[in-house]
Amino acid sequence: MSSPARFFLEGTHAVGDVVALDASDARKIATVLRMRDGDEIEAIDSSSTRYRATVHLDGAAVGARLIEALAARPASRLRVVVAQGIPKGQKMDFVVEKLTELGAAEIVPLRSARAVADASPAKIERWRRLARSAAMQCGRADVPVVAEPTDVDGLAARCGSFDLVLVPWESADPAPLRDILPGLLAGAAGVLIVIGPEGGFAQDEVAALRAVGAHAVSLGGRILRTETAGLAMLAMLDYAMG
User: Is the domain of 87 the same as that of 191?
Assistant: First the structure.
C-alpha cells in the first residue's frame, strides 16, 4: 500500500485544526491527484510535527483536517549546510533537489571569483519551490532553507558557527576521506560543506576559508563536476555518521 500524499503547512497547528493549503498544493489535490473530501493525506507543520489528515473541501477552498499526530521520525544528529558555487544553466535545480533528498539542512548559493552564473530573486524562489517539492517527495519532515546568495567573504564570517567546515578542493592533500573523516567528525553537530563553481576556487578563496578554520579535503583522483561534488560529500558524511 502506497503512503498518503504529503503536504507542508505554514505555521504550527494541533489535532482538530482545519488548515488551508497553499495554491499549488490545492491545485495538485484538485486537478492532479483528483482527491475528494475525506481522502487521507499526511501533513507536516512548521514545527516538523507530522499529522494523519484528510482533505477538507469547502467550495473552491482546499484544506487539511488534522486527525492525529504521528510519531516523529528520528532526526539526524548532524546538521549539514552546503554552500554551492552557482553553476550555469539549470544545474542548480538538480543540485537543490538532490541535496534535499540527501538531507541538507540549508543550501547557500555561493558567488565566487570563477563563477560565471549568478542567482536572481526569481531563481531563488524557484529553488525554494524545488526544495519544498523534493522534501515532500522523499518523505522529509522539514524543508531545507535555500538562503540568499553570498560570497566567500560572507561565508567565511559564518564559519565560526560550525563545528567543522570542509572544502573539497583538487589541490588538497590527497589523504583518503575514509581515514580522516572519523577524527574530523568526532563530536561535531554542525558541518558546512563548501563547493566551488565550475571553474574551481581561486587560491585566495581557499586561503580565506582556511584562515577561519576550514579543512581542504580531497575527493579522490578524479575531479568531480560542481553539481556532483556536494552530493558525493554529503553521501560520504551520511555513511560516516551511520
Answer: yes
Whether the per-residue pLDDT at 70 is higher than 60: the answer is: yes
Spatial contact of 201 and 214, defined as CB atoms under 8 Å apart: no
Extract the C-alpha cell encoding 10: 505554514
Q: Are 168 and 40 in contact (CB under 8 A)?
A: no
Quick: pLDDT tens for 8-26: 898 899 999 999 998 889 9
Domain that holds residue 65: 6-69
Please report the pLDDT score of residue 139 as a whole number: 82
**CATH number for 176:** 3.40.1280.10
pLDDT digits (tens, 9 = 90+) for 88-122: 999 999 999 999 999 999 999 999 998 888 899 99
Q: Which is it for strands 18-20 and 6-8: parallel, antiparallel or unpaired? A: unpaired
Find the angle CA(99)-CA(112)-CA(231) to the nearest 5 degrees.
20
Shared domain for 112 and 10, answered yes or no, is no
126 or 223, higher pLDDT: 126
Residue with cell 577524527: 183
Distance from C-alpha of 213 to C-alpha of 7, rounded to nearest angstrom: 39
Residues 146 and 234 in one domain: yes
> pTM of whole model > 0.85?
no
Domain end residue (candidates: 42, 69, 96): 69
> What distance in Å separates the CA atoms of residue 7 and residue 25, rounded to the nearest whole number?
7
* β-sheet bridge partners, residue 168: 217
Cβ(209)–Cβ(156) under 8 Å? yes
